[in-house]
Each structure stands twice: as C-alpha cells, then as structure tokens.
Amino acid sequence: LGRVPPSLGNLSVLEILTLDNNKLDGTIPETLSSLRHLRHIQAGRNSLSGTIPPLFFNMSSLQYLGFSSNKMHGKLPPDAGRHLPDLQVLRLGGIGNNFSGPIPPFLRNATRIQELGLANNSFEGRVPPEVGMLCPVSVELDSNMLQAEDDVDWEFLRHLTNCTRLKTLDISDNAFGGVLPSFVANFTGPLNNLLMGRNRMSGVIPPGI
C-alpha cells in the first residue's frame, strides 16, 4: 500500500526487487535507475501510473523488466533495447496499462530475450522485422493497434518461422490485414499456440499449414 519509496535507490548492491500483487500507486522512482547491479525488477498487478523512467533502458544489468497490469502509459524510447544486452523478459502487458507508439526496432539488441509481453496496450504501426530476429520463446502482441498490409509488413513473421524455440505467438485483436502469407506454414520451432483472431486478414488459409 502506498508509493514505491525513492530511498530504495540507495540500496547500491540490490539485485532483485519484486513488488508484485500489492496496492502500490504513484510513479516509478527514477532513483531506481541508479542501481548498477539490479538484474530483476518486477512490479506487476499494482496501480502504478506514469511512464517508465527513460534511464531504465540504460541499465545494462537488467534481465527482467516487468510492469504488467498497472496504469502506466507513454512511449518506449526509440533506442529501447540498445543498452539491454542481457534482458530476458520484458512484460508491459496486462489489463490497465496503455503504452503507445511504435515498437522500437532497437529491441533487436536484446538478443537474449525469451519473453516479449506487450499485450493489451496501444502500440501501433507495423512490427519491426527485428522483433522476429530475436527468436524468443513467447511473443504476446495481442490487443494493440498493430498493422500489416503486405509481405514487407509481415516480414517479422517470416523471421519468426525460423525461430527454433518459439512456443507462443499471439497477435490477435490488432489491425493485421491483407492476405495471410504462405510462410505462416513454415514454423520450425515447437510452436503450440498460434493466435491470430480478431484481425482484418482476407483470402484463404495457406494450404501448407
């Protein structure tokens, strides 16, 4: 209950901060971005508001960044991911948040990412091909305003078909349109959840599927 105290930024050797399932409100203190050893910050299912302090995206030690199911908003910095080489989990989805703008192509620098959770927000535009190059285990982009109209826009999906560890891909409830590319039948990984409903796709389902 209450706010996240800025004084936590004085815990200079802190590595893990887990604040899930509380009644926290207010904003994320920017002082936390000074924690040079912080590997894991998780504060999902609270009532936190405001934006993610930009300096969080310069924390090269981060492996887990999770603010799902809060009341947060704002755009991700254009270079988000450039300085996060060890990031494995990014969770900003869940009911309540309203992050917007494009998905930054510089997420490609987070080459160790396993879970990309951006569902239930207002991200828009096309999905950068670089997202497909990451080859995560789980990609959740559902319930946004993402678009695709031609093969160029679907290039991220082509890259994901080559991912040998992808298990879940959810792009449902967006504005993906045009003809579903034939390479959707070419997934090579252990895919067991492919969710593409509530979009604007037309034509036929590729027979190779």
Short synopsis of the structure:
With 209 residues, this protein is mainly beta. It has helices at residues 129-133, 155-161, and strands at residues 2-3, 16-18, 24-26, 40-42, 47-50, 64-66, 71-75, 89-91, 98-101, 115-117, 122-125, 138-140, 145-148, 168-170, 175-179, 193-195, 200-202.
Question: Mind explaining what this structure looks like?
Answer:
With 209 residues, the chain is mainly beta. Helices cover 6% and strands 28% of the residues. The strands form two sheets. Strands 1-3-5-7-9-11-13-15-17 form a nine-stranded parallel sheet, with no helix packed on it. Strands 2-4-6-8-10-12-14-16 form an eight-stranded parallel sheet, with no helix packed on it.
Query: Describe the biggest sheet?
Result: 9 strands, parallel
User: How many distinct helices?
Assistant: 2
Kindly provide the radius of gyration, computed on alpha-carbon positions and rounded to a whole number of angstroms. Answer: 18 Å
Strand percent estimate? 25-35%
Could you outline the blueprint of secondary structure elements for this entry?
Layout: E1 2-3, E2 16-18, E3 24-26, E4 40-42, E5 47-50, E6 64-66, E7 71-75, E8 89-91, E9 98-101, E10 115-117, E11 122-125, H1 129-133, E12 138-140, E13 145-148, H2 155-161, E14 168-170, E15 175-179, E16 193-195, E17 200-202
Parallel strand pairs: 1-3, 2-4, 3-5, 4-6, 5-7, 6-8, 7-9, 8-10, 9-11, 10-12, 11-13, 12-14, 13-15, 14-16, 15-17
